[in-house]
Write a structure and sequence with these properties.
With 369 residues, this protein is α/β, with parallel strands linked by helices. It has a single domain (19-304), classed as 3-Layer(aba) Sandwich (Rossmann fold), CATH 3.40.50.1820. Helices cover 36% and strands 14% of the residues. It is built from 14 helices and nine strands. It has helices spanning 54-62, 68-73, 100-105, 107-114, 126-137, 157-169, 172-180, 183-188, 190-202, 206-217, 251-261, 276-289, 300-309, 343-346, and strands at residues 19-24, 27-34, 43-47, 76-79, 119-124, 142-148, 240-245, 267-271, 366-368. A nine-stranded mixed β-sheet has the order 1-2-4-3-5-6-7-8-9, with helices on both faces. Helix 5 (126-137) links the parallel strand 5 (119-124) and strand 6. The two termini are 16 Å apart.
Length: 369
């Protein structure tokens, strides 16, 4: 997770939200429903990363003013992993924390509890892994999914050894910080890092957090298969949006997953930082491509780009906007250093919904955000 911060005063006012404890074979799963489900529309279901809960992970995004229009159309169900919510009781000694696969198996119980037929997933890090597993095992329940900083692979033996060695010399909060943020962020944004370190140390139940971290470190490969014509491969059947900060420690894993697995991804979004306005813009384009909110207005960010894109520099060239020949900022263009995405093979998009595209054959393309 690169920087997720509030860029301006939030428009939405946080208020007491209905909290639910969903019974599962592994204990009660804490969920928070924001808004009421609207007809047959899916609900947005979120899952957080290690070291976070739904508030510290998602409040900056869902309280941002650009999310107001989306919140008018969709209810949101925030899921907290076992023992990670505020005020969680410490698990008893000997409690066997569920695996990543088992956590994914609890999500159908969440849908049943709230009477939901399907959801649009939004996960980051460990939460993205869990939602992907859920989408693979229950494709009819997932209409679409936005995966931020996902690592679909099991922890390799070198990663395991590195964690073991660093565990001898560093406290677990520092290991979590290095998972959430890139080296540049850690080295320069001391205020942000200090705020998250304080949260991890003071707001999270340390015993419960340790169990969740160990569960994530013990994950197995998602076993996503390369799509083969005529064969029902085990791959994501729903529209998918991959998002990663270009300074994120997960950038190689995210981009590599598209190449290694040839994942049928609708959009690969490389952001200079994961800020609410940029995430909102990418997510709005994504759900519009799924057929929702066709009359939605442009975000403030998109409007500013449209305005700047209509101006010309003194030599007659377009300013840096959504042009194909512009010098795109640190993105997956063919000329850029990170040309590992499928833009060459599948083409390029600026993130707007394209109703003429064959929806039965998702493509791996790029959003500029």
């Amino acid at each position: 997770m690169d920087e997720i911060q509030v860029e301006s005063k939030p428009l939405l006012v946080d208020r007491e939200l209905p909290e639910h404890d969903v019974e599962t074979p592994y204990g009660r799963l804490h969920c928070t429903m924001k808004g009421a489900p609207k007809g047959d529309r899916p609900v947005i279901l979120t899952f957080h990363d290690i070291g976070l809960n739904h508030k510290t992970c998602w409040d900056a995004l869902f309280n941002h003013e650009d999310m107001a229009e989306i919140m008018q159309h969709f209810a949101v169900c925030h899921v907290d992993a076992f023992g990670q919510h505020e005020g969680a009781n410490t698990f008893s000694t000997g409690y066997e924390y569920p695996s990543m696969d088992q956590l994914a198996e609890t999500l159908p119980l969440v849908l049943k509890h709230f009477g939901l037929k399907s959801v649009i997933g939004m996960g980051i890090g460990a939460g993205a892994y869990i939602l992907t597993r859920f989408a693979l095992d229950y494709p009819n329940m997932m209409e679409g999914v936005m995966l931020i900083n996902i690592n679909p692979c099991a922890e390799g033996w070198m990663d395991w050894a590195a964690h073991k060695i660093s565990g001898w010399t560093h406290a677990e909060p520092d290991m979590i910080i290095s998972h959430l943020f890139g080296k540049e962020e850690i080295g320069h944004n001391h205020e942000l890092i200090g705020r998250y370190r304080h949260h991890i140390l003071n707001d999270m139940n340390q015993f419960n957090l340790h169990l969740f971290v160990k569960s994530y470190e013990s994950r197995r490969d998602l076993d996503i298969e390369r799509p083969v014509p005529g064969i029902n491969a085990r791959t994501l059947k729903c529209p998918s949006l991959l998002v990663v900060g270009d300074n994120s420690p997960a950038v190689d894993a995210v981009v590599g997953s598209v190449i290694i697995y040839d994942m049928e991804i609708d959009n690969l979004c490389l952001c200079s930082s994961l800020q609410p306005a940029k995430l909102t813009e990418a997510f709005k384009y994504f759900i519009q491509g799924m057929g929702h909110m066709p009359a939605a207005s442009m975000t403030r960010l998109a409007r500013s780009r449209t305005a700047s894109g209509s101006s010309y520099t003194s030599d007659g060239n377009r300013s840096r906007s959504h042009t194909h020949d512009g010098n795109r900022s640190r993105s997956h263009t063919n000329e850029g250093s990170r040309s590992r995405s499928h833009t060459t093979e599948h083409g390029h998009t600026d993130g707007t919904a394209n109703n003429n595209v064959d929806q039965s054959a998702p493509k791996s393309t790029e959003i500029s955000c």
